[in-house]
Amino acid sequence: MNHSSYTKEQFVEYIKSLVEEDSHEVFEEKFYEKELDIWNELDSTEEIDLEIETTGYIWNVDIEQRGEMICAGFYNHSSELYNIKYVVFFRHCADYSRVVARPYDLKRVGKSQEGYYLERYFNRNEDERKLVENGKIVFGVYFRIFNTEQEEQYLNSLKNLINDNNQKIITDEYYEYKMENWDKIKHDKIVKYIYPNFNKLKLKFNNHNGNIYFSLEDCSLFENRSSYDANIILTLHNINDITCCYAKSITTTVTHFDEDNYIIKFPNFIKEVDLYTKNKSNKSIIENNKCIIGLYTRYYESDKNKIRKVREPLDLSLSSSTSSSSEDIDIVIPNDDEMEPLLQPKENKTTTPEKSNPPIRYAVLALIVILYYCYYFYYTYIFCKVMKEINDMDHDNK
């Protein structure tokens, strides 16, 4: 269809068509638009704050300028479970063909701000003529909200895997992301960066002799020098059916994460064949080379007396009667080739969760310096003495 011929109704249908269809029952749809005097508002307040109301939820929207890029992000503070797909767009006030739109999938639980990280939508200098006229632009969001009864049952199953170790709970959070191109894992690794609740996580899957190895790296801890205590459940499930899933606790007890302990390596997370094994509903975790990966995280108040190192992972397999064998897991410092160049730690490249001991390092360095200078002065002394003797011999011969 030629976008320039869109009526308002056709444009709305076009935006809705960007949301991928699935088998979930739709609970509510919401189409929201607002015309903005964008440059005046951004220049005077630095950010534009909007509120969008749907049944049971109020969504907060932030629009900001970062450099030359116009960015937007939104969130809500509900503690209830919701399951949505949505499209965020900016368009010209009068021409529906001049639009920038992005679709998203999102499912979560807990008081969090997933989605708040700002996404870049257009360049003020390069795209202004396309989208803005006389300082005016239209911002919009389309929500498709689904029923969550099945999701609640699924999440309760995940909660049953958590060992709180009698530690005080702060909050629970759950995020899902689509993982594509699973055929790559036969000859390469799959890496995906996700951004739950202001954090930057790196997920990596490797195939080793038919077993899928998994690692989770919280890059934000190294960047921000922060820390937290948490339990984490990792799940893989069919893109349209959460009952076809595989889940494991990758911490098994309350675990401390900080700048020195920010990556979990989990060998033998699942057998590759189990990703493609059909369940009773004739569905497999991987469908059309895609699946959904979920992270259920429970955060706790810090308690230094609690055990931080975890072993013998638990598992829950709804897609197959077989589950991968339990392996020891640990929080480790990654090797250089597993890190982004800007995130490589300057020190402490060990593979244990123990923090390095700076006084020992400094003592060794001081000893090396002392030995160097001793060698230097000794060599200089001997050299000067030999040269003096040679000069004395030459003088005597004369």
From TrEMBL:
Alphabetical UniProt keywords:
Membrane, Transmembrane, Transmembrane helix
Top-level taxon: Eukaryota
Q: Where are the transmembrane segments?
A: 360-378
Protein name as catalogued: MATH domain-containing protein
